[in-house]
Amino acid sequence: MTALSAIGARLRAAREDQGLTLKSLADSMGVTPSLLSQIETDKVQPSLNTLYQLATRLGVSIDELLDIEAADTSGRMRRRRLVAPVQRFEDNPVVDLSSGVRLELLAGGASGIAEPLMVTFEPHSSTTPGARFSRHQGYDFGVLVEGELVLRIDFDEHPMRAGDSVHFDTTRPHVYVNETDRPARGVWFALRLPEADDAGADTELWRRKGSTPVRRSSTLSDVLNALHNQDDWS
Fold first, then answer.
1. 192 close to 198: Cβ distance less than 8 angstroms
2. Which of 104, 131, 146, 164 could lock 160 by a disulfide, CB 3.0 to 4.6 Å apart?
3. β-bridge pairing 165-169 and 214-215
């Protein structure tokens, strides 16, 4: 089931619940009220970056915005009650972005702690149309399980292959690109952090500078050798 088809009404309900006008919300995001109006009336599909910004500004999860069952008959947002620890793959809400990327919302998205996603990149696709850089409040954790990707962040490119993992502050300009003729697939956890003005000292724990955003996969022998070389190995 594609979940973007009815997102407009839920966005409008969430905005009105926060007492925000189209203009005030648009100004805080750096977009035009006209764009938000078109998204709310389902005339325009939001980009992944815009979707994350909307969720952060409105204080709701991506799961709530995209899951049709997360709204009551009045259109108001409500927190979905978790009834089982296992979510069947056929029940995953699916979002197909115009840039060729598919997002599947996994179990636990309603917790509001992080957005767990299965992300599929079709050949020659990217997270934004035209592979434009984007940024939004939060933090990305992910592991590529199939295929190859390139993470472009700031002025650097980081090729990724199956088994490589990623972590970085998503306020940094970035885009994921599949430059190959084969699909790429991975599992991502998108952690939404408070806005900069509201972030406390704890937020700095997630913003460590100087570390590479991509960690290469290790073989079992690499892991065992590392453990063996630890001082407290016994």
1. no
2. 164
3. antiparallel
Structure tokens at 207: 């913003």
- Determine contact, residues 202/131, Cβ cutoff 8 Å: no
Amino acid (1-letter code) at residue 45: Q
Asked if pLDDT for residue 221 goes beyond 80, the answer is no
What is the reported pLDDT for 211?
58
3-state DSSP assignment of residue 218: coil
Domains assigned to the chain: 4-215 (2.60.120.10)
Q: Of 66, 64, 52, which Cα lies nearest the Cα of 174?
A: 52
Euclidean distance between CA atoms 190 and 166, whole angstroms = 11
Dihedral of the alpha carbons of 161, 163, 167, 173, in degrees to the nearest 10: 20
Contacts 24+ apart (CB under 8 A), 34-37: 36/11
pLDDT tens profile 155-165: 899 999 999 99
pTM of the predicted protein model: 0.64
